[in-house]
Amino acid sequence: MTTNSPTRLRWTDLVQLGSPPIHGIAELPGSLADVVGLIESVIGRRSHSSRRRVPSAGLGYPYEILLATDDFDALAVVDLAQRNVRTADPDRFRDTDEGYVCLLVGRPWLSMRKYGPRGYLYHLIDSGHALFDLALLGSQTDDPPVTIPPSARDRIHGKVLGIGRIRLRQSATSLPCWRLVVTDAHQMQVGRTAFEELALNIVPQSSTPVPVVFDTSGSLDVRACLDALQVRTSASTFIRAPHPGISTAIDDGLAWGRAMIAQLGLPEPGVTVVGGPDCATPIPQGDLLAALAGQYHLVDAQAFLVFSVGAGEADHIDDGRQALLLAIGVVGQAVYLAAAAKGVGVTGVGGISPEFWNAALPQGQHALYLMALGTAAPHADKPDALMQGGHP
Ligand SMILES: Cc1cc2nc3c(=O)[nH]c(=O)nc-3n(C[C@H](O)[C@H](O)[C@H](O)COP(=O)(O)O)c2cc1C
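^ thats the input. predicted complex w/ flavin mononucleotide below
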């Protein structure tokens, strides 16, 4: 990890790789393989595929997953892209019956380097999508929720957005693609450039950071959500053909999403259905392309869920707004899964011209994120960000 924040680029920044030292590489031991396997099954890649179970504005993971032992003395990073677990304490992650504490740590810079300040919004929405899925791993328990002891705070780099315990489900899974990488404790959270460090200075610091506890999914039908996860994907292009499942997908998705945000203790964002069979206030067809910031692959969607928040008083992003943006991602993931379960095409849409959508919302609400629903064109490739028509 590069922790210094130079104001001028140094020659050593160019000539040194900056990778952490690797002291050893091994297979994941049983209990760690179990927990990592569970995390991969909800937010990782599908086996033999580059497709992930969670959507993302910028395709990557603008967050990091950490595991901790109960006493927080030992920490490990679960790198879902590289498929390795980095730790300085491999022996502390050998065997346990209890599972591990899991932390979701935001990395806004990974979105902001592509999208500028709006990337901060996207990293929270992306993280909300992941929170929904991680909560599916929680088990009903009377244990008090886990918290980070003050002594561990300085050893965790970045803002912890979520925390929960992931318990073992089965005995000794082997995860052949994954490796345990032994490294130095202070270099475990790799990949942070000096620019990422600098960007932290503009991110609002809370005096009382309270991560969302994702220990359990409450009364949700976890089996139905996990089944839908197997087929969740973003529609690349919509075609003009009415889909009979849209209303049910919206109703189910909003019901699942609201149940989950209540369980997670998050506030409810504004949600307005625009277009679709039951809604009277569609965007005029002539304005739709502009409202979608020129994304022509989305214009034949039949309904749009518009997520919004009140304009609010504060000039900056505060804890309340952070919670609302996470909640938007949580409900967004629920809608993705409900749509997948019904075969309805769906995609999250962050590239919008808000003024068109604001006009369809209750007074004072500001549109931030959409879910487009409709009939997906079969076998169409999602336009890459570099392609004509790719999302901005
Ligand atoms: C916050 C957010 C914003 C997104 N914005 C857009 C968008 O503006 N246009 C679009 O076509 N897709 C958008 N997507 C969908 C992503 O492009 C999609 O998740 C990504 O390409 C990965 O594909 P997959 O969801 O099929 O795994 C967005 C997703 C998220 C979570």
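Residues 51-52, 55-57, 59, 122, 125-126, 129, 233-234, 295, 347-351, 369, 382, 391 surround flavin mononucleotide (CB under 6 Å).
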